[in-house]
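Task: sequence design from structure.
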């Protein structure tokens, strides 16, 4: 009985990557194509705080938000299994990320990300809710700093630009086995 339960428990898949690359979209598609559950670190933080990420940043600052991410990471590695975990763009910096699950980096160029966001019907809202995307020049710098760091943390890298959601999902499910 014990053995059977263990067989059915899959390692989590942790999606990392820059703001707006589509981590949430891919996570939801992965959940539909598998028997795994889905959780999002920003959603967990917002429900824990009963405030939006944007408000947490403006009322308490980035450092406070990063501490909440660290707390979320500890909770996930202890309590969550068989799940697709989409993360905020800076979550990859938490301690022992690898303990949470198989880390998948969704890679795109900066211009590809901005294009993707602008193509969405609620584009303005998508920019507004992300404090670190409000200034495009600063965001581009942050992207350049983070790009090699995302790569270094990843077990699997998927170049998502101009690739369909279906293809991205199939590649992740094949490679994360
Ligand atoms: C952040 C990304 C955001 C959110 C917060 C900080 C970052 O999540 O966690 O605004 O540091 O890159 P998304 O990647 O879902 O936009």
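Answer:
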């Amino acid at each position: 009985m014990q053995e059977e339960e263990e067989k059915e428990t899959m390692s989590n898949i942790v999606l990392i990557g820059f703001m707006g690359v589509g981590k949430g979209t891919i996570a939801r598609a992965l959940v539909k194509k598998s028997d795994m559950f889905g959780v999002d670190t920003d959603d967990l933080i917002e429900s824990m705080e009963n405030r939006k990420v944007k408000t947490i940043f403006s009322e308490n600052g980035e450092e406070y938000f990063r501490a909440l991410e660290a707390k979320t990471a500890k909770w996930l590695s202890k309590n969550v299994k068989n799940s697709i975990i989409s993360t905020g763009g800076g979550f990859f910096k938490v301690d022992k990320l690898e303990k949470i699950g198989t880390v998948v980096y969704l890679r795109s160029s900066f211009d590809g990300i901005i294009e993707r966001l602008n193509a969405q019907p609620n584009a303005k809202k998508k920019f507004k809710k992300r404090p670190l995307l409000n200034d495009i020049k600063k965001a581009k710098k942050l992207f350049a700093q983070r790009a090699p760091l995302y790569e270094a943390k990843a077990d699997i890298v998927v170049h998502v630009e101009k690739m369909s959601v279906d293809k991205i999902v199939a590649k992740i499910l094949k490679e994360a086995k």
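The beta strands are 13-16, 37-40, 83-86, 102-107, 156-159.
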